[in-house]
Design brief:
alpha/beta, Rossmann fold, 9 helices, 7 strands, 18% strand, globular
């Protein structure tokens, strides 16, 4: 015997039902959490990463339809991945890659070119390979940083590299339409990548942020994932940059 529905209860349909979400860099952190949230909203999810063991562990966590282990900065491997994907797909999120820090004066020309172009080259490579398989109204979603708006000792070339992303995304949105292109600019997010960068200074950074951020807590992968899925589902959004840093840029 079934129980009667609670008066006033509203059944909400999953927002990504029948859609396919590909996460490049989806085996941990923000990418993994976005895949998990997309799956909870009814999407079929496909995740990629460099580490086959980590991917095998992540796949059952998010009910991944498919996984692929490769280096996303390898143009040939990226092309093969998209060629092998069955069409159509709806959304592609790129979380692979990280910032480059260090003294500007200690970088050679090749390192500068790589640091400035790394995210843009990867984003463009994904766009070129994914475009033919994406449904109109789907979205290509890239990751940036609110750190592009400040400079400081130790940040080096990272602010310049991130500052190039918003106009790149806006221009790409015009060329890739009707597929949408958007950028998430995050502050500090408590992920395995952050832990690897900060080492034994991680807990000190967490305490600092809890004390200073207007939201009174540290931003986590779930916060970014919630924004990512919203951008996927709101088909009026394209060519824009969306901040998620708990107010870090203001303090």
């Amino acid at each position: 015997m079934t129980s009667p529905a609670t008066p006033g209860a509203v059944q909400r349909e999953p927002e990504l039902a029948g859609q396919t979400v590909v996460v490049i860099g989806g085996s941990s952190g923000i990418g993994l959490e976005t895949a998990r949230r997309a799956r909870a909203e009814g999407a079929e999810v496909i995740i990629t990463g460099r580490d086959p063991d980590r991917l095998r562990q992540a796949a059952p966590e998010v009910g991944a339809q498919r996984v692929a282990a490769f280096d996303a900065t390898d143009a040939a491997a990226l092309q093969r991945f998209f060629q092998d994907l069955p069409a159509p797909i709806d959304h592609v999120m790129v979380t692979a890659g990280g910032p480059t820090y260090g003294s500007l004066l200690e970088m050679d020309a090749a390192q500068v070119r790589e640091a400035l172009g790394d995210h843009i080259v990867l984003g463009l490579g994904v766009a070129r390979n994914a475009a033919g398989k994406m449904r109109p109204g789907g979205t290509l979603l890239l990751m940036g940083s609110t750190g592009a708006r400040r400079v400081g000792h130790g940040l080096g070339i990272a602010p310049a590299a991130f500052a190039a992303l918003p106009p790149f995304v806006a221009s790409l949105a015009l060329e890739l339409a009707p597929v949408r292109v958007n950028l998430i600019a995050a502050g500090f997010v408590d992920t395995p990548l952050s832990a690897s960068l900060l080492g034994d200074q991680l807990e000190e950074r967490r305490k600092e942020l809890r004390a200073t951020l207007p939201i009174g807590r540290v931003v986590g992968p779930a916060d970014v994932a919630a924004l990512a899925v919203h951008i996927m589902t709101n088909t009026a959004l394209t060519g824009a940059t969306y901040d998620v840093d708990g107010g870090e840029q203001f303090v």
